[in-house]
Amino acid sequence: MSSAKKGRFIVFEGLDGSGKGTQIRLLEKRLSEIGRSVALTAEPTDSALGGIIRDALSGDPVRSPSELAAIFLSDRIRHCSDKKKGIKVLLESGKDVICDRYYFSSFAYQGIDTDIDWVIDMNLNCPEIIRPDICIFLDVDPDTCMERIDSSRAFTEIYEKASTLSRIRKRFFDVFERLGDTENIMIVDASRSPEEISEEIANALSRL
Question: What is the pTM of this model?
Fold first, then answer.
C-alpha cells in the first residue's frame, strides 16, 4: 500500500446517521483556523463508478455484495490515484484530506454478506490504495441512527434498516479487532453533543 504523503489523511467512519457530516465540517473549520489547508472528499466518489454505486445503494439495479465490493474497490483506486484530484495528489500538495468513508466501510457493509477475507485482502493488498493516518469511528446506537435517517430523508438505502445496521456495527468492531495495531483507529462515543465529540477528536489529532 502507498504511504508517501505530506498532508494528513483522516478518515471518518460510522453507521448511516452517525453524524459524520457534522464532525467533518467542524474538523475542517478547526484545521483551517490553525492554518492547515484542507480538502474534503467522500466515497462513493462523484465519478461514473460512484454513480453506479449510488444507484446500487438505492436498490436499482440490485447487485450482489461481491459485485458491489468490487465496484467500490475500483472507485477507491481511482479516488486515490486520479492525477488531478486524487487523494495522493492532494496529500503531496500539502493538503490534509478528510474522507467520508473509506475501505473500512467496505469491510463492514459488504463484509456482512460476502467473504470478508476477500474484501479485506483486495483492498489492503492493492498498491494504489493509500493507508490513512487515522480512522475516526463515530459510534452511535443503530436505533438512534435510524431515527435520524427517518427524520431527515424521504428515501432509505439498502443497508438502512435497524437490524442491518446492528449487524454492520458488530462487523465494524470485528474488523477493528482483527486489524489491531496495523491501523490507527479511534472509536468515539458519538451519542454526545457535537461540540464534545469535536473537542475529543481535535485533541487526538493534535498528537498525530
Answer: 0.93
